[in-house]
Amino acid sequence: MRSRTDPDTDARGTLLVDIKASSELKPGVNLPASGTVSTINDVARLAGVSIKTVSRVMNNEPNVRAETRVKVQEAANLLHYRPNLLARSLAGARSFLIGIFYDNPNPSYINAVQNGAIRRCRESSYHLLIEPQDAHSPDLERNIAGLLATIRLDGVILTPPLCDMAVVLHAVEAAGVPYVRISPFLNPGRSPIVRMDEARATYEMTQHLIAMGHRDIGFVLGHPEHGGTHLRYQGFTKALSEAGITPRPDWVKQGFFSYESGIEAGKSFFAEGKPRPTAIFSSNDYMAFGIMGVAQQMGIRIPEDISICGFDDAPGSILIWPHVTTIRQPVEDIAYAAADILLAKAEVEDADGTKRDTDRMLPFELIKRNSVGPV
């Protein structure tokens, strides 16, 4: 015999809807028993709408009345309903998957890209496929073409250096998959782009060093295959030129965006018997960490004897001492915007039929910390 504290059930043991849960939901509709999986039919019955309306709400489509959208969402929440990805894919032309292709030695950068894209995907019940690629593989084009032929994607995000590689772009375009590039250097009109102004960022950081009295400034280049490397060096040389400073070729070192290449650059800068700059601008924070490690091993004080700054605002920039003056690049927001462009294409046009903006430029921030001081 059922106690008074037991929830109301019918003869089959199916829970009855608590009408108090929402005055908008259709009364008298049974909830599935505990342990069963709710279906779109259950949501439609509880909300008192058609299955098509539930589908449109779950897919975040426009032209659904606000009150109807709320009612469907309340019903879905009450039923713990989650759309089946395979069923959604089979029912329409979308896979509800977008991909990220990358080849980048910077782990914090890739982690931030993934986090930003995932955050946007979850807002539209999409999923993200993460695919590392070897940019130097002779089979790169075939690998990407095979992947796109095997897995149906609604869009692809390309990060440096893949975003500037002709074989990658050809493979994606041949598959007919929409794509967005993050921070490319070449062919800006070929696809939608999301970036920050890297040249302007290095220009402003170099101006900051000059304002602190530095005129002997070294620079560490990033990986030559990354477009950001060239943009950052452009900003650096522009600021020097405007200040009447000629960069010394022996103070421009080749790096590869890795800690190890920063160590090699540091050893070259601080070689015994060679003149050294009063400040060093590293194209990313990981190389700056390597330079700082060499300086500290040699008893060179930072910033008293030499100022060192970086780029990206990697997590380690506030974990070492002195904390690193750097450029904060909004990597997560950039990836979020790239996914947003793809999902805008994958979902529907705006209600009025207007074309949404594609290319997006996000702001950067110069973070002044302890690794830079006056001459």
Automatic annotation (TrEMBL):
Which Pfam families would you find in this protein's record?
LacI, Peripla_BP_3
Gene Ontology MF terms in the entry: DNA-binding transcription factor activity; transcription cis-regulatory region binding
PROSITE patterns from the UniProt entry: HTH_LACI_1, HTH_LACI_2
Please state every residue range assigned to the domain named HTH lacI-type. 38-92
Q: Which CDD domains match?
A: HTH_LacI (cd01392), PBP1_SalR (cd01545)
Extract the SUPFAM superfamilies matched here.
Answer: lambda repressor-like DNA-binding domains (SSF47413), Periplasmic binding protein-like I (SSF53822)
Q: What keywords does the record list, in alphabetical order?
A: DNA-binding, Transcription, Transcription regulation
Q: Which Gene3D superfamilies match?
A: 3.40.50.2300, lambda repressor-like DNA-binding domains
Say which domain of life the source belongs to: Bacteria
Q: What is this protein called?
A: LacI family transcriptional regulator
From which organism does this entry originate?
Asticcacaulis endophyticus
Q: According to the entry, what is the taxonomic lineage of the organism?
A: Bacteria, Pseudomonadati, Pseudomonadota, Alphaproteobacteria, Caulobacterales
